[in-house]
């Protein structure tokens, strides 16, 4: 299957995205902000459809929309980020706007499917360059803020007293999440961002590894699930997103079961 | 809490605490009471109890240099004045129990000392420097709350606070790992190092929190309700542990608590907060019917029974809040 250009591109894209989604997701799950990231992907959807209408690339709109929402969410602080109702409202309004934009687009059906469920086989080599750039930026950013972010996540009051800028970290982290979400949506689609952002991270967090090992393992597991999904999709002709979602859920369950029987 | 009365300007009377040793750790406090007629209340020491002797003999070993000092400090929270024109000085190495009802300003005072909330007026110094956020020599242990990251081992949890304000990866290096090990050893928590935090009891998690506050080798410890949700035996054990650590490292400790009894015999001073005022002194000076009645501006009885102290309000406690009467719940 690696004889085909589009498959090689797909494997590379999955690598670039998984390496970011794993560690970013690890913090996301630890901080209890998974629902917020779900909302960011939906705002990204509205941005992507808007970009399509204007004749721009969907990735631009996706990243732009999610980034703006992420920064605003971080600035609003606990007033929004910790509130399910607020996030749910933002999510549904964004989805509604996206539906309107799709309606106004002529070639809506295929575009909608690609955005909602992902189209990893349709990633162009040019897109690969953008993904590489975003991934490098994300990993660099995460590497710089990992230590205070961990402290602020586990002991917010103590961290604040020690001079950790909580709000700045919150904004920066949600910006990272927004970019990672936009990248992830290229592979799994907007609706299934959870599969690569949350599933591997949540599975790894169950293992009780030390933070650095956990961040690495989350990246590794995300990569294994993304590539596993690609390979299975090649042999079964089912969508890649389906397999990634299934692998993510199965991995999470499996670790839970193993731990239960060990205990 | 603001009293309804206008604040009299001359409320900063001095409550000098003469220690049994004769070496005076002078503790001026804003112990003036806006009490009609009486002006200020001079609190005198009562007959020595074993408790105060222990506190006094501990105080002799330390220098009288000021660790924490407040001049005419007014603190507000959410626009409401919580503490009004407080002046006090706490000597280095003193072990202070901070008492008062919910909302009396204990946490607000701690936040102010941490530089998280600026004072409305007045000035505050720690180790002769103005308070500021991120002071390395100030250790802070917040109240225990919902556990985040319970799957981490005790070691990882403590290590997350090691230079947690620095940018970069959570990579600790040999010196860092040794510092974490030393902090764990200081609170006898080596056996908790490899267990997931979620599997630990409240008292064990408390020890990990304490280990975290020790990482920067602080000279001042602010402990917010470290005894909450512990059973009585654990309470005493915790206070003793903190007391021993504080003595060994000559740390000044401010520990807020709802019940005075677990602290009896170990603390050098009581800082009692009520009605926007603060009263600092030894247990025998502060926890008296006269002093507390004046502080609250309402009849309050201090009852001593079985080596324990109870603060009881007349008329079902209209002046005190539920948790304010130390230990009365246990004897109800």
From TrEMBL, chain A:
Transmembrane regions listed in the UniProt entry: 6-30, 51-73, 85-106, 127-151, 171-199, 211-235, 241-258
Record localization: Cell membrane
One Pfam entry name: ABC-3
Keyword set includes Ribosomal protein: no
The keyword Ion transport appears for this protein: yes
Signal sequence region: none
Topology with respect to the bilayer: Multi-pass membrane protein
Protein name, entry field: High-affinity zinc uptake system membrane protein ZnuB
Keywords recorded for this protein, A-Z: Cell membrane, Ion transport, Membrane, Transmembrane, Transmembrane helix, Transport, Zinc, Zinc transport
Function: Involved in the high-affinity zinc uptake transport system.
Automatic annotation (TrEMBL), chain B:
ABC transporter domain ranges (all copies): 68-300
Domain of life where this protein originates: Bacteria
Keywords recorded for this protein, A-Z: ATP-binding, Ion transport, Nucleotide-binding, Transport, Zinc, Zinc transport
GO molecular function: ATP binding
UniProt xrefs under Gene3D superfamilies: P-loop containing nucleotide triphosphate hydrolases
InterPro entries given in the database record: AAA+_ATPase (IPR003593), ABC_transporter-like_ATP-bd (IPR003439), ABC_transporter-like_CS (IPR017871), Metal_Ion_Import_ABC (IPR050153), P-loop_NTPase (IPR027417)
Protein's recorded name: Mn2+/Zn2+ transporter ATP-binding protein
Organism encoding this protein: Acetobacter malorum DSM 14337
């Amino acid at each position: 299957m690696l004889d085909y250009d589009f498959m090689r591109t797909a494997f590379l894209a999955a690598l670039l995205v998984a390496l970011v989604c794993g560690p970013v997701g690890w913090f996301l799950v630890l901080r209890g902000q998974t629902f917020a990231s779900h909302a960011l992907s939906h705002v990204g959807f509205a941005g992507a459809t808007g970009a399509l209408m204007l004749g721009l690339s969907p990735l631009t709109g996706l990243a732009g929309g999610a980034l703006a929402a992420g920064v605003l969410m971080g600035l609003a602080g606990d007033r929004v980020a910790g509130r399910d109702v607020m996030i749910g409202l933002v999510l549904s309004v964004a989805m509604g706007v996206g539906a309107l934009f799709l309606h106004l687009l002529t070639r809506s059906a295929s575009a909608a499917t690609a955005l909602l469920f992902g189209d990893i086989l349709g990633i162009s080599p040019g897109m690969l360059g953008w993904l590489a750039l975003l991934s490098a930026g994300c990993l660099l950013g995460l590497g710089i803020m990992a230590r205070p972010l961990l402290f602020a996540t586990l002991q917010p009051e103590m961290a604040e007293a020690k001079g950790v800028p909580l709000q700045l970290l919150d904004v920066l982290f949600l910006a990272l999440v927004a970019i990672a979400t936009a990248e992830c949506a290229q592979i799994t689609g907007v609706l299934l961002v959870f599969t690569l952002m949350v599933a591997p991270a949540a599975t790894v967090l169950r293992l009780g590894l030390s933070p650095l090992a956990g961040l690495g393992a989350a990246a590794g597991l995300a990569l294994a699930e993304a590539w596993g999904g690609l390979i299975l999709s090649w042999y079964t002709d089912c969508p890649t997103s389906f397999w990634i979602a299934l692998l993510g859920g199965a991995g999470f369950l499996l670790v839970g079961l193993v731990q239960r029987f060990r205990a | 809490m603001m009293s309804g009365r206008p604040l009299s300007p001359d409320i900063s009377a001095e409550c000098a605490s003469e220690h049994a040793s004769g070496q005076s750790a002078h503790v001026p406090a804003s112990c003036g009471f806006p009490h009609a007629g009486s002006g200020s209340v001079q609190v005198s020491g009562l007959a020595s109890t074993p408790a105060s002797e222990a506190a006094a003999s501990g105080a002799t070993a330390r220098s009288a240099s000021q660790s924490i000092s407040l001049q005419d400090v007014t603190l507000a929270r959410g626009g409401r004045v919580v503490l009004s024109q407080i002046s006090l000085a706490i000597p280095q190495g003193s072990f202070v129990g901070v008492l008062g009802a919910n909302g009396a300003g204990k946490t607000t005072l701690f936040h102010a000392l941490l530089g998280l909330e600026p004072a409305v007026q007045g000035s505050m110094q720690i180790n002769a420097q103005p308070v500021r956020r991120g002071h390395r020599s100030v250790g802070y242990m917040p109240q225990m709350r919902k556990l985040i990251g319970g799957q981490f081992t005790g070691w990882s949890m403590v290590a997350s606070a090691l230079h947690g304000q620095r940018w970069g990866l959570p990579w600790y290096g040999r010196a860092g790992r040794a510092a974490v090990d030393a902090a764990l050893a200081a609170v006898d928590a080596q056996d908790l190092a490899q267990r997931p935090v979620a599997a630990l009891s409240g008292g064990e998690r408390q020890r990990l929190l304490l280990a975290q506050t020790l990482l920067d080798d602080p000279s001042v410890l602010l402990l917010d309700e470290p005894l909450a949700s512990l059973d009585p035996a654990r309470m005493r054990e915790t206070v003793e542990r903190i007391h021993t650590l504080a003595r060994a490292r000559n740390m000044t400790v401010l520990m807020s608590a709802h019940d005075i009894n677990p602290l009896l015999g170990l603390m050098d001073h009581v800082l009692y907060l009520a009605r926007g005022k603060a009263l600092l002194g030894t247990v025998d000076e502060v926890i008296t019917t006269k002093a507390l009645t004046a502080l609250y501006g309402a009849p309050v009885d201090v009852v001593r029974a079985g080596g324990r102290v109870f603060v009881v309000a007349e008329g079902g406690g209209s002046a005190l809040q539920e948790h304010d009467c130390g230990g009365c719940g246990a004897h109800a």
